[in-house]
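STRUCTURE REQUEST FORM
Protein name: TRIC cation channel family protein
Source organism: Microbacterium ureisolvens
Requested output: structure tokens
Priority: standard
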Amino acid sequence: MSETVFVIPLWADLVAVGLGGIQGALFASGFRGERRLDLLGVTIIGIVMGMGGGLIRDLLLNVAPTTLQSNWYLLTAAGAALLGMLLAGLFQRLNAVIVGLDALVIGLFGAFGTSKALVLGLPLVPAVFVGVCAAVGGGILRDVIMGLPVAILHVSSLYAAAAGIGCLVLAIAEQLGASVVLAAVIGIVVTTVIRLLAVIFDISLPEQRALYRRKVAVETSTIPIVKP
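Status: completed
Returned output:
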């Protein structure tokens, strides 16, 4: 199946890129002391957050990176990063809005990645993998560039897990006969809702250490389980 069969609407792609750029700028603007970033640094992090997911998606699918086929992607990411930096104080007071946008961005990139993979002929499981990589790719690149621990590898509020569930629901809906557009909308809603609920109720996957303690306690009946 040819690559041109599936085309993500430019406006939708740019919305995701712009929101990602704002998020990257807000993240970068929060550093103080020796880690603080200048104008160029904030812009670069915004571009990485806005375009990273799409680049990783297309590299995995072995197709020409969509974000490099138009001037608008770089301009949108850079402009959104500058806007996020200039309005950082205002955005930080609207924390609930930022959390909601964060959840929506994860859903958008995950849905776009999974949908494109399915239409290009990938099986369900690899397509979901591509979607998750697209959803979390920008954040991974951001952390690597800034020399920080990769956030999704540590205890958090179902960041990658929300994307995985949403992408899986999307893929199953498409396999059951739903149109790609409808399946994508369903996937975005599922990812966004799960991520928001996880943040609101502070839900996360169990820590590896906690799992090990429970395993030993069950096997030996000698080590008490410490409840949080």
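Reviewer notes: Residues 1-5, 216-226 have pLDDT under 50 and may be disordered. The CA atoms of residues 117 and 123 lie 8 Å apart.
Form closed.
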